[in-house]
Amino acid sequence: MSDCSIAEKLGRRVRALRLDRGYSQEAFAEMADLHRTYIGMVKRDEKNITVRNAEKIANDLNVSLSDILVFCLS
Amino acid sequence: MSDCSIAEKLGRRVRALRLDRGYSQEAFAEMADLHRTYIGMVKRDEKNITVRNAEKIANDLNVSLSDILVFCLS
Question: Where is the HTH cro/C1-type domain positioned along the sequence (chains A, B) (predicted)?
Fold first, then answer.
């Protein structure tokens, strides 16, 4: 997976954490006050996620930002 | 330093790496194709840096993104 972009890895990591917590895409988007397709767009590199938004998503998933980003940096 | 934002820590880390490599703010901005005040604005939380831009800056400083972000996540 090392050849895919960090945005793609980040999108996958968020999706895995979301599913792990039993949130549908819609429920998580509503809770995180994001558009329903936002994470999908990040994953497909169609949206250029900011560090601040990544931090907000991490908080909404009850993980630290490093739990998300460190996974993507490996 | 744990109370300052991740953007502030990131700005400081980039500045330290830039100075360590002997780049002035102007020289680094030109090399990285960024506006001269961009990093300063990130550091002052006036600019919401994207993960992709953080990755580009890391490449221009010859470090991995984790060298920058992991420092900010501690």
Answer: 14-68
| B1 belongs to a structural domain | no
Task: A33-41: list long-range contacts, CB under 8 Å, 24+ apart.
Answer: A39/A11, A39/A14, A39/A15, A40/A11
CATH of the domain at A10: 1.10.260.40
Query: Taking CB atoms and an 8 Å limit, are A73 and B64 in contact across chains?
Result: yes
For residue A13, tell me if it sits in a domain. yes
When pLDDT is cut at 50, 70 and 90, the band that residue A2 belongs to is low
Chain A residue whose CA is closest to B58: A73
* ipTM entry: 0.74
| Both tokens assigned to B28 | 């680094």
